């Protein structure tokens, strides 16, 4: 039972009498403090019940200012002892408390203040003990729920019941694994940004955030990669509630420790299968992968290699696993410091994989290959990602490297003059108008003239891209429907830049 003025009033032996609205009697009391000072707030933390006999109060006292100081400091209430300095509670004090919304009670002369202090102390001790018992019971119930089949679901339901809350368990990719009740899945959209912050944090920290109708606690599950437990309700979370959430996290972590071991073994198996494929045993590797993990991507394939910082690569591997489970088939393996994905050669899968490149992670994409050419595809992708790291761009396709090798067959100065002559009108237009004709042309060519795909990569509408390409045609004086012009432009766009100092052609 919490310490409140209502509970003190219920103890008839104390004889406390309310002098305020009934709605003010339920504020929790953190302690009882005795003071006759005009401003006792400098010695208070807030939440206390102040006990006074009004020793310094008379007709000159500014009762409204006195009450205002107590309310501003967050006191739970004021207990005024009568029969000593004052036979009754001063009416100006009663009126000020009513105006300011301060809980006010009268304490009769027969009741010593020490009796009030002891009653508050006893109530606080009883409440603390009740919270300990509640937390202990919850820990036992959560542990019992973890036993047997469907342990995760039972733990989440037990947690939701104990806290009268809704619960979400999110996987490493931020997708909902389980929701209790099912309607709690609707909460994900408003928590997405906060969940990203929790997943990015390297330490075992939690966040308490506001929701549309209350509060939510977001807690990472470290043995599950980037998994997050979200618990929310209308009321806030007291210390005991947070301890129960922590107990649930511990139980879920232990419950999935074996899963982590399985994931590690699975990662090692995938790496071994990839080594088999690279050694020329792709058919056998595929048969094993199908038997153990289900359908695999069918030829023609593309190999996508990712390299970068360790934490980002670990998160990337989790994201790929989650995407493959939903959209697959996709083969993922970690090998020699790289995350390698084998996907179908269609643009949808390759575009999605390429979009994962960014800060801290670079990607390289091979040409389409057959199943027997996995080793060649991996070599292409690895060379492409090395080029991406050297140049600082997020993604390089191997086809771009093959275009670059053609330049080596011609004198660098001649190549630069050709590129400058062909692209000069576009570059001048971009410089004068702040346009992006060269960038748009390169992206459009790299997408084989596919308007939607190129526009999406550029972040513009396809009509905007069409207008840019038409402008480029006008400046070039030639139609881009001509394959020869496209080839020349592609060559020029990848030509090395050579300082000329105005000497070309002289």
Description:
The relative contact order is 0.06. Helix 2 links the parallel strand 3 and strand 4. The protein has four domains: 5-111, HprK N-terminal domain-like (Udp-n-acetylmuramoylalanyl-d-glutamate--2,6- Diaminopimelate Ligase, Chain: A, domain 1, 3-Layer(aba) Sandwich); 138-255, Beta-Lactamase (2-Layer Sandwich); 260-397, Alpha-Beta Plaits (2-Layer Sandwich), CATH 3.30.70; 410-493. The protein has 506 residues and is α/β, with parallel strands linked by helices. The longest helix has 34 residues, at 113-146. It has helices at residues 5-10, 63-72, 91-100, 113-146, 151-163, 188-200, 239-255, 257-278, 282-293, 310-327, 347-355, 374-391, 398-407, 412-433, 437-446, 451-458, 462-476, 483-493, and strands spanning 17-18, 31-34, 48-52, 77-81, 104-107, 166-170, 176-180, 207-211, 214-221, 227-233, 301-308, 331-335, 338-344, 361-365, 395-397. The chain has a five-stranded mixed sheet, sandwiched between helices. It contains 18 helices and 15 strands.
Question: Can you tag this structure with a few keywords?
Answer:
506 residues, Udp-n-acetylmuramoylalanyl-d-glutamate--2,6- Diaminopimelate Ligase, Chain: A, domain 1, Beta-Lactamase, 4 domains, 5-stranded antiparallel beta sheet, 18 helices
């Amino acid at each position: 039972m919490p310490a409140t003025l209502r509970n003190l009033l219920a103890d008839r032996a104390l004889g406390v009498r309310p002098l305020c609205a009934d709605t003010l009697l339920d504020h929790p009391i953190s302690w009882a403090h005795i003071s006759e000072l005009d401003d006792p707030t400098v010695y208070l933390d807030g939440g206390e019940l102040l006990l006074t006999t009004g020793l310094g109060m008379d007709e000159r006292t500014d009762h409204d200012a006195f009450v205002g100081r107590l309310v501003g400091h967050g006191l739970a209430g004021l207990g005024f002892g009568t029969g000593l300095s004052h036979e009754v509670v001063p009416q100006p004090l009663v009126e000020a408390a009513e105006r300011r919304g301060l809980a006010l009670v009268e304490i009769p002369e027969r009741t010593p203040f020490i009796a009030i202090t002891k009653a508050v102390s006893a109530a606080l001790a009883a409440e603390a003990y009740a919270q300990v018992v509640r937390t202990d019971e919850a820990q036992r119930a959560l542990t019992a729920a973890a036993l047997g089949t469907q342990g995760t679901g039972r733990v989440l339901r037990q947690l939701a019941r104990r806290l009268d809350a809704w619960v979400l368990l999110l996987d490493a990719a931020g997708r909902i694994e389980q929701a209790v009740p099912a309607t709690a899945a609707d909460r994900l959209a408003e928590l997405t940004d906060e969940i990203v912050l929790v997943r990015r944090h390297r330490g075992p920290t939690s966040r308490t955030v506001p929701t549309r109708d209350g509060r939510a606690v977001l807690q990472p599950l470290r043995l599950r990669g980037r998994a997050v437990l979200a618990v929310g309700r209308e009321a806030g979370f007291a210390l005991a509630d947070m301890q129960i959430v922590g107990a649930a996290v511990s139980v879920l972590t232990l419950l999935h420790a074996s899963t982590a071991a399985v994931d590690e073994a699975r990662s090692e198996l995938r790496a071994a299968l990839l080594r088999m494929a690279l050694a020329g045993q792709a058919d056998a590797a595929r048969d094993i992968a199908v038997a153990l993990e289900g359908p695999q991507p069918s030829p023609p394939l593309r190999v996508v290699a990712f390299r970068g910082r360790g934490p980002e690569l670990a998160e990337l591997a989790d994201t790929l696993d989650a995407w493959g489970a939903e959209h697959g088939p996709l083969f993922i393996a970690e090998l020699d410091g790289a995350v390698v994905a084998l996907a179908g050669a269609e643009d949808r899968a390759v575009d999605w994989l390429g979009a994962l490149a960014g800060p801290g992670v670079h990607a390289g994409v091979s040409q389409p290959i057959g199943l027997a050419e996995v080793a060649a595809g991996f070599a292409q992708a690895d060379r492409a990602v090395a080029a991406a790291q050297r140049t600082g761009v997020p993604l390089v396709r191997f086809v771009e490297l093959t275009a670059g090798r053609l330049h080596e067959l011609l004198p660098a100065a001649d190549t630069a003059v050709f590129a400058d002559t062909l692209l000069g009108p576009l570059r001048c237009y971009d410089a004068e108008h702040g346009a992006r004709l060269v960038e748009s042309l390169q992206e459009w060519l790299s997408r084989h003239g596919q308007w939607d795909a190129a526009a999406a990569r550029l972040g513009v509408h396809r009509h905007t891209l069409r207008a840019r390409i038409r402008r480029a045609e006008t400046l070039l004086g030639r139609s881009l429907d001509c394959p020869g012009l496209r080839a020349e432009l592609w060559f020029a766009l990848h030509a090395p830049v050579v300082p000329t100092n105005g000497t070309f052609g002289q």
